[in-house]
Design goal:
Layout: E1 9-13, H1 19-27, E2 32-34, H2 58-62, E3 73-77, H3 87-94, E4 99-104, H4 107-121, H5 129-134, H6 136-139, H7 157-175, E5 180-184, H8 185-190, H9 192-203, E6 220-222, H10 225-245, H11 251-259, E7 261-263, H12 271-280, H13 282-292
Helix pairs in contact: 7-13, 10-11
């Protein structure tokens, strides 16, 4: 085991854009090591962490990578690094040779899916999507924050979308464009083989390797809310124990959560709401088009 190994690959976001699937695809590659704990969220000192679920000490963070052997690429995936203003500089200072991967999707679909995920994880308590969006202004002032939330910025749906262009450009400026790979969720969904191969070339590892492609992190909901609340309430205790005794997540809560999980098709967002949000995000999408040099007009037409 080597405690001096530092990661050199960061999947920085965005949430609900395929980061979990890509994480699983990459960790199958023999030249790539991805941390067992997927989202340590160590960087981003400007993010507001609660309930002791994330890594805040470098020594404990580096323990995530002590099992590295001879892998060329050592990585982790924390999808709210893309929200953080300070994370790019922190990562650059930590390891100047790092490579960055950013995934994007239709903004309205992203925050709608994120809301569902946060309900499932216990970070969100407002079950109505539109009401959750309307709460954003007062939540930005520190009010109406769910007691069991682990990262407050997860609740700032509109703000996340609006920050995307500036944040992407910030990563490109700090790491240079050749070290920042930007793709769309649809690239993974519609042409996963070529997309994966291009990522491997970007990482300078064997591009001929083919992993098992499976859909990760599908739409989930809980069977019983009381069990969901118990798991969320117990998570800080598990997080503390993980930090003190092991670098891996404790399995008991994951087992209980799994038993309480059901998979289903997500309810389609009402057309009028979707169209309204698409138009609201149009200026942001146009900026993204210019930055990534791709036609995204189908996101607002």
């Amino acid at each position: 085991m080597n405690s001096n190994i530092k990661p050199n690959l960061f999947i920085v976001g965005a949430p609900k854009c395929g980061t979990t699937s890509l994480y699983h695809y990459l960790r199958q590659h023999p030249e790539i090591f991805m941390s067992n704990f997927k989202e340590p969220h160590y960087f981003g000192k400007d993010l507001t962490r609660l309930n002791n679920l994330y890594y805040t000490e470098e020594k404990k963070y580096l323990k995530l990578f002590t099992m590295v052997k001879k892998e060329k690429i050592i990585g982790e995936a924390s999808p709210h690094y893309l929200y953080s203003y300070s994370a790019p500089e922190e990562i650059k200072k930590f390891n100047s040779k790092s490579k960055i991967i950013i995934l994007l999707r239709h903004p309205t679909e992203m925050i709608y899916s994120l809301h569902s995920q946060l309900l499932f994880s216990g970070n969100e308590v407002e079950q109505d999507f539109i009401m959750a969006l309307e709460l954003e202004d007062i939540r930005l002032k520190g009010k109406n924050i769910p007691s069991k939330i682990d990262l407050i910025e997860k609740l700032f749906y509109r703000t996340y979308v609006e920050k995307l262009p500036d944040q992407i450009q910030r990563y490109q400026k700090i790491f240079s464009k050749e070290n920042v790979n930007i793709m769309l969720l649809s690239d993974l969904q519609n042409n996963v083989n070529n997309t994966y191969q291009n990522i491997l070339k970007f990482l300078n590892v064997d591009p001929s390797f083919k992993p098992e492609f499976t859909i990760e992190n599908p739409h989930k909901s809980f069977r019983f809310k009381i069990i969901c609340d118990i798991v969320k309430y117990s998570s800080p205790i598990s997080g503390n124990m993980r930090g003190k005794f092991t670098s891996k997540s404790l399995g008991i809560m994951k087992f209980i959560q799994g038993m309480n999980t059901q998979f289903s098709e997500k309810k389609t967002l009402e057309t009028n709401i979707k169209e309204k949000l698409d138009q609201e995000f149009k200026p942001t999408i146009i900026k993204l088009e210019e930055i990534i040099n791709r036609d995204l007009s189908h996101w607002y037409h």
